[in-house]
Amino acid sequence: MRTKSIYDTAVSRLRRRFVLVALFSAVVNILMLTGPLFMLQVYDRVLASGSVATLQGLFLIVVVCFTFLGLYDFLRTRMLSRAGYRLDQDTSDKAFDIWMKSGAGRATIKGRPLNDLAVVRGFIGSPAVLGFFDLPWVPVYLGIVWLVHPWLGMLTVAGAIVVLVLALANQALTKASIAKAMGMDATESAFVDQSHQSGDTVLSLGMGENVRKRWSDMHRDGLSTGQIGGDRGEAFTTSSKAFRMLLQSALLGLGGYLALQQEISAGMIVAASIIAGRALAPIDQVIGQWRGVIRAREAHRRLRGAFMMYGREDEPSMDLPEPTGVITVQSVSKFPPADVADVDAKPILSGISLRLEPGRALGVIGPSAGGKSTLARLLVGAWHPDQGEVRLDGATLLQWDPDRLGQYIGYLPQKLDLLAGSVRDNIARFDADATDEAVIEAARIANVHELILSLPEGYATEIGYTAQPLSGGQIQRIGLARALYGAPKVVVLDEPNSNLDMDGDKALTQAILTLKQRGSTVVVMAHRPSAIAAVDDILVLRDGKQVDIGPKDEVLARMQTQSPPKKPPE
Prior knowledge:
single chain, alpha/beta, ABC transporter transmembrane region fold, Rossmann fold, 3 domains, four-stranded antiparallel beta sheet, 20 helices, 12 strands, about 60% helix, elongated
């Protein structure tokens, strides 16, 4: 049986609130009759009788009714805004997780879940939703007008049909262009972010004007596409508003004729006109907010799809004991992510098998695009194999709780970005309970402690913002300290010396030796020989396949003599 996603469950929890809003809307719409009925009584009873006491009594009743009207209208508006807040609270954490997974290549989604959630949350508390709750009361108002006089009722019904046709035509003619504009806007936003992140390269290579022109073309195309839907929607909105005003005047004219024929009273003319306007108001309100309705609907669909695929409740994992660091890779193959893979795409890795023991270091070498970074991601659990298994102390990585597993993993990716925060925060992996001793210990092993102390504010120096105070080599060494924080059992370093100088290479070699002495399992992906100076074994990858594996000296000797490679273990 297919279980609900977290998002669907959170939406279903709002039903009780929506039921209460519907009840409050019923009271509000009933109290909306206060004004027309008061005017009817004033024209037909007070003016005819000249009784001031009657007028005072009626006015007192009106004050009470409008007081409750304001109260219930406030309550339903507050409940809708709180419903949006509750939906955000129930789903935002998982939406953030899905967005992180998409950045790691574990999820393929459309749009940005947090942005879509903000759109849905804002829509729930918008006037458009109140219009939808008022729509069921349109027939009631039409029926009241009909009771005043059938001719007035028929004219109002005809007007409601015209307004409804305008609303349906508005949806049909604006849906495609608005949805397309939203997609183009997302593409443009991604391009703007990429241009911002690559600003130094763009400007240094003289690409600024070309990139600006590309953005300008995307921006104008998106605006023109959105404007098509906007123009159509504005035409329908203004047409509907003008027609409503014309209809009210027509009702006054018809009511005046019926009053001259002594079929209705003067008070009924005004009351019927106001009630008819109230009957058409929800339709007009929804039409005026139609662009927001479509945006919220598309955001809701994207959220449902993303949560249906990646937002289900996680199966409870076993609280496994602390691992020793034994890693076994059994016939592992990995294909490109679904969003970039062709139908006949070749695997990035194919049939990789190896065993890593605590206290030893493995160097992974080979030409570019050989699959080294993919293997690194598989070993730390960032990616999961399409075929085969990666096990830590006999348990597959999926059997571990991700957060608990991360405590035993140290990972330095090839493309390193530090998060916005202090140096201490980044080394401590943003652990609020991290001790200064543990942070400094990791920095000392990475030989970056003195470098950090030389910064203007030491460990409190803020990094990861627009004004980056660190060089590429310094960022990589702080990233190494982050990987070593907490004495992890498994440490995977992907091109750890790509930005390091000679002192950095020596510090890296010493860090690997220290990790081995502490019993950690170390894997180093490398191009430069200095990165594998302290490793014990070598794995050679070429075109995603395991070419050779064994003790470092033996593998390097075979590579120099080009002897037949050793057969990979079964």
